[in-house]
Every structure is written in structure tokens, then in C-alpha cells.
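Weekly modeling sync, notes
Attendees: AB, CL, MP (scribe)

Item 1: holo prediction request
CL wants a bound-state model with S-adenosylmethionine before deciding which constructs to order. AB pointed out that an apo prediction alone won't tell us much about the pocket. Agreed to run with the ligand included and paste results into these notes for async review.

Input as submitted:
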Amino acid sequence: MLKYMLAKLEVQMRQSVHSQKNRDFPVALGGYELIFEALRFYEELGYTQETKNIQRLALEAQPTPAMTLYLHSLILFHLQHHIGALDSIKTAMMLTPNLLILHVLKGRIQTALGDLPGAYETYAQVRELDPEYSGVDDSFFALAAEKEMPGEDYYDWLQHFHQRLRPACYVEIGLGHGRSLALAGPETKAIGIDPYQGFWEKLNYVCPHGPASLFPLTSDDFFTQHDLRQVIGQDTFDLAFIDGLHLFEQALKDFINLEHYAGKDSVILIHDCLPIAPIVAERERCTGFWTGDVWRIIPCLKTFRPDLKVVTIPTKPSGLGVVTNLDASSTVLADNYEEIVRYYLSLNCPASMDQRRLLCNAGMDYEDSLTTILSGAN
Ligand SMILES: C[S@@+](CC[C@H](N)C(=O)[O-])C[C@H]1O[C@@H](n2cnc3c(N)ncnc32)[C@H](O)[C@@H]1O
């Protein structure tokens, strides 16, 4: 399966190169980005030669030295060789000083290196170079997320949960390109649910310990059509991750459906519970960097289910909710679903990050709460 994925990434790389030759730059650059990100995963698994060969396809297709240096920098950035990436991008900028993508990548590298003032200045230059380029807003959001939530990102945290809990069964709703699903450990049976991405042809990652079972269904359809107990072969799941449709009412429904199959030590993680700005939490997506209004689920659970333990880890880019002490017999949320949704949809996203932290249980004491939660689990 790992070989299949690498072969698929090679095909995707050839398609991206083809798009670039046809001057479809957004598609080409978006493709390179996703492929280089995925190649790091396979490089870490020891597929060094295969990943290098795929990277070379893109490097050799570049029409100018500046673009070759740009891609070289992007590869190093994704491999987390940030100093080398910065050197390459600076050289590229000497050759082509006004090429916007070079500045944007420089800002990302500076952010990764912790030079936040430098990144801010770089993005300000991007804005000056092209006031019409709205993509820079996302760069500023990512920068703000780095400032507010420094340290490990949510993938690192998901990995900690897998390593700490060693779940026999993991259920993920919302797969993207499969990066989070692939974090499951060798002892874990993983289930992935996603109506659009729940096919191997669509995913870029596969768990090295064995492929997950995929269900190309909306989470609602999955729970209507399947009894999770039969799918996983046990009465309860151990760890679940809600990262599907980013609307409060859907996240709540996913929570209700999952809790029905929860045991005493099961843990539910919920992505996007701490938005970096109210605009990224709009229900109608108007920014590339988008969390939707999933955050509402935290104050909702705090109020309606005081029996649960709820905390949000302030991990970039948008926080990770952690819920334990689950109770499969509780019907409070299901019984009051319509009313709860109506009430919480009228709640405004607080303007200040401090207020959002408070509302979403992501205060300074989150680490203590997390330790308590995790020591209670298992
Ligand atoms: C942000 S991505 C998930 C990213 C992934 N969990 C990761 O961290 O790498 C959100 C995914 O939710 C999926 N999705 C959208 N609506 C859904 C639904 N009703 N049920 C399940 N998945 C859904 C989308 O197709 C998309 O792949």
C-alpha cells in the first residue's frame, strides 16, 4: 500500500508539472505543496530514493533558475530544513525580486524559524507588491496562530494521543488527504468516514501499520447505515476525531452519534475549537484559513453536559477539543438538539482571543486539566 501511494504521488506530480506547463499555476503550485508535504511522511519511513525521484520531476521541469530555487526551498521547508530553505528562497529573490510566491514562502519559513516580526514584515511587503492578492490574509492568520499557539501543532497532539492511549479502535470523521488517519499505531484498527475523500485514490497518506477501513459516506449516513459496534467488532471505540463538516450543528451531531458508542475511557477529540479570529469562524467560508463555527460545541457541552470533562488544547492552527467521561446512556443533547442548536447559533464569536480561550476552556490551566483527563482515561 505504501508503494501504491508513492506511485500515485508520482502520477500526481506529473499532473502538476503538466498544469504548470499549461500555465495553470494555482493548480500546479497547490499540487506541489500537497505532494511535498506528503513526501516528508514517506521520507521519514525510509523511502528516501523514491521521494527524491518524485521531487526531481518537479525540479527538472522548472523554466527558470528562480523557480527551481523556489521549489528547492519548498522541498526543504516541508522537510523542516528551514535554514537551507531560507537560503534558497533568498537567492531566488535576488534573481526575481518581485515574484510574489517567493515572498510568501519566505514569510512561512520565517514563521517556522520563530522570526515572527520578520514574517510580519515580509507579508506586509507582499501586500505592498500586490494589494489585490487576498491570499496574504491567510498568511497573516497562520502567523497569528503561531504567535498565539506556539509549539506543537495538532498533528503532534494527535500522535501523543495515539501513543498515550494506544487505542484498539480509532474512528475519524473527515479525512482530508488522510494525514491524521495515518497516525494510528500498530495496535489500532482505524475507521475513516468521509463522503468525498473516503477512497484510497483520493488520499495521499496511508498508515504504515496497515490501511484503515474507509467509508465514503457523510457521517450522518454512516451512523444511519451502520452499527459502529459491528464495524469495529467491539462494543465501544477508544479514540475518535471529529474533523468533518465544520458547522456547529454537524459537529454536535457527530458528537452525539459517537458518544452512543463510547465506553468509560473513550476520548473524543474535536478539531477547530479555538479560532484565531472571528472571521475564520464564519459559517459561510470567506477565508482560505477557515475553522467554521465548530468552537460553539465547547461552551455547549460545558453548559448542557457538566458531567463531561472538556478542555481545548491551544494547538496551532485552530485548537483541539478533548472530551472525556463520556456517557453512552445520556440523551440530553439528542433530546434538546433543536433548541441547543438554535440557542448556540445566536452566540457571537468573542472578539478577543482571551475571551475565546476562556469560553473554550483553553486557558493557562489547560495542561493540568489535560493531565487529569488523560490520567483518568485508560
Ligand atoms: C479539514 S478536512 C479533514 C482533515 C484531516 N482530518 C486531517 O487533519 O488531515 C475536512 C474533511 O471533512 C470532510 N467532510 C465534509 N463533510 C463531511 C461530512 N458530512 N461527513 C464526513 N466528512 C465530511 C471533507 O470531505 C474533508 O475531507
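Recorded for review: The two ends are 31 Å apart (CA to CA).
Action items: CL to compare against the apo run; MP to circulate these notes.
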